[in-house]
Amino acid sequence: MFTLIAQLRSRSITSVAALTPSFKFNQRTRCTSNSMSSRLFVSMEGGPDSGSASTTEKTDEEKERIKAEREARKADKERLKLEKKAKQEAERLAREATEAIHDVTYMSYDEQETYPNMGDLTRVMSKSRTGRPFLKVSDLQNKKAGDTVWLRGRLNSLRPTGGSCFLVLRQDSFHTVQACYFKDKEDPEGSKKMLKFLKSLTLESIIDIEGTLAEADVISCSVKNFEIKLKRIYCVSRAAVQLPFLVEDAARSEREVDESQDTDRPFPRLGQEIRLDHRWLDLRAPANNAIMRVQSAVCQLFRESLYSQGFCEIHTPKLIAGESESGAGVFTTDYFGTTACLAQSPQLYKQMAISSDLNRVFEIGPVFRAEKSQTRRHLCEFTGLDLEMAIDDHYMETLEVIHEMFKYIFKGLESRWENELSVIREQYASEPVTFTDEPCVIHWPEAMEILTSEGFDVGDGMGDLNGAMELTLGRVVKEKYGTDFFMLDKYPASIRPFYTMPDPDDSRFSNSYDIFLRGLEICSGAQRCHDPELVLQMLNDKRIEAGGGLQTYIESFRHGVAPHAGAGIGLERVVFLYLGLDNVRKASMFPRDPNRCTP
Question: What's the mean pLDDT in 499-523?
Fold first, then answer.
């Protein structure tokens, strides 16, 4: 090429054309002289030439044509790209449509073969009675292998493993059964959808399952001899993916948590506040749920015992004109322009019931105390088990009734609620309460002697007991009399309410009593003053104004009333102490204390 260029520099363009008539040179060539100051552009075409360089300029039409062709090629490329993308999207949508798990509207058991065998149930709004024969997990023991069953419960655990999935359904917090699903080779697409749906379920969701019972050996469930081969599963209510804590963690004992702390996988320690903030979740733990059932059992047994002893249940007002318990804090509220109080007890109305010739009455109802007590045994609202009865001669008649009632409760819990107690004691260790067949009554002077011998300074012996004194007294009584349950009577009159009958032999003391369980007080009671003049005198001695509701209370005695005695018992405290719990809040469904008014 460089040789050719050299030749061109020494010859005319015409000569070159003549020498090479058939050579076509359509490219622009850049030639540089020795001085780098001139450039030569040569264009050669075959055939004769005019002898001078010429450059062909494109016309506007050609430029437009070339531009149009370029844009057409670009448009074709974009079209092909969009067509490919649309095809891929259509394939994706078709695939998703095939794999989609739709919500299920289940209307009738007779038509269930027309429904998908998995999915979220549409909102249950009482549109129909489906007729599904739901069973209790606890009833599966009465079934046999091969039976088809329907169950509803919570998803307790889920373990997908490749082509299979195992889950545990939980009912009533402590009845559990295992269910399983295995990939069906004859229906790979259906199996794929079922496994996908199972994996999407969240713990604590409410689910319905239908399946066939199969014999199995399942250690971790309450149903140990069966598992369920899943045929259908519907999600009734999905739980959030992220829960405040796992029910499994809430169900562990302190011992388990402590022992795990030095391992590679220590269990979380759930504090009281996070539990109470999400109390509904905490109560799903088997032991905590069983505590609420024991609380219900105490009320049931309380009623049964007193009904059998001739009592009538009453319901007294909780909005009252004045305080019902002197010395106890009271909540007040506006009552149409006047001030009303939330009842600190049904005390005044129980006594007026006796004046109404309802000679034996009891009540189960809320009690309110505006006391800023932060202890493990105090609440601002609790459930009172109250009783009042006419007596013939002596308040021991009432103590005997109370003793029989508590004996009935203690025996009934151990014999009729043994399953619940077993579940509770797995997490919160305790032994059954010990008690005597006849009332174990300790008189105040003996209690003072015991406490003095144990190193307490009781002063003049006329002050109230503190927590440490109560626990020490309970320990010594257990050692001496072999009982966790005893009564202490003859309290100093100065530390008892105004309606307490004075001791007939020494007015410094009173015909009053407290009842103790495992070293803490669960009940307070007394013979009441039924003489209106004595009531007025005691109100005056305690500098309490006889106004508001007290006027009608005293007036009821002026119309004649039988001598009577009674007691008030704290339900949550009984449950808390009977079960050996560390805090009364565990025995309250939604506890109220000075720092908590929700949930």
Answer: 97
Asked whether the beta carbons of 525 and 513 are under 8 A apart, the reply is yes
Helices (H), 100-115: none
Q: Which residue has the tokens 């370029």?
A: 70
The catalytic position among 222, 573, 585, 588 is 573
Active-site residue, selected from the candidate residues 303, 378, 443, 596: 378
First-to-final CA distance of the chain: 96
* Side-chain-side CA neighbours of residue 341 (13 Å): 21
- The dihedral formed by the CA atoms of 387, 389, 394 and 399, expressed in degrees to the nearest 10: -30
CA distance 526 to 564: 9
Contact by Cβ (8 Å): 177, 168: yes
Fill in the DSSP letter of residue 163: T
> Cα separation of 62 and 67, whole Å?
8
pLDDT 10s digits, 34-59: 444 444 333 444 444 444 444 578 88
CA–CA dist 352, 359 (Å, integer): 10
pLDDT at res. 29: 40
Report whether 366 contacts 274 (CB < 8 A): no
Q: Which of 227, 325, 381, 521 is catalytic?
A: 521
How many helices (H) and strands (E) would you count in the chain?
17, 17
Tokens representing 557? 């005695």
Q: Tell me if residue 356 is catalytic.
A: no
User: Are the C-beta atoms of 209 and 228 separated by less than 8 Å?
Assistant: yes
Q: Is 545 a catalytic residue?
A: no
For the question of residue 284 being annotated catalytic, the response is: no
Selected catalytic residue, list 173, 355, 524, 588: 524
Q: Is the dihedral of CA 472, 474, 478, 480 positive or negative?
A: positive
pLDDT tens for 174-204 read: 999 999 999 999 999 999 999 999 999 999 9
> Of residues 377, 403, 496, 530, which has the active-site annotation?
377
For the question of residue 420 being annotated catalytic, the response is no
Place of tokens 């394939």: 91
Please give the helix or strand (H or E) that residue 364 lies within, else none.
Answer: strand 360-368
Catalytic annotation, pick one of 369, 403, 496, 528: 369
Asked about 416 being catalytic, the answer comes back as no
Q: Which of 132, 164, 371, 446 is catalytic?
A: 371
Active site residue 524: yes
Q: CA-to-CA distance for 384 and 525, rounded, in angstroms?
A: 13
Task: State yes or no: is 108 an active-site residue.
Answer: no
Question: What are the tens digits of pLDDT across the range 270-318?
Answer: 999 999 999 999 999 999 999 999 999 999 999 999 999 999 999 999 9
Angstrom distance (rounded) from CA 288 to CA 589:
9
Closest CA to 312 of 359, 352, 364: 359
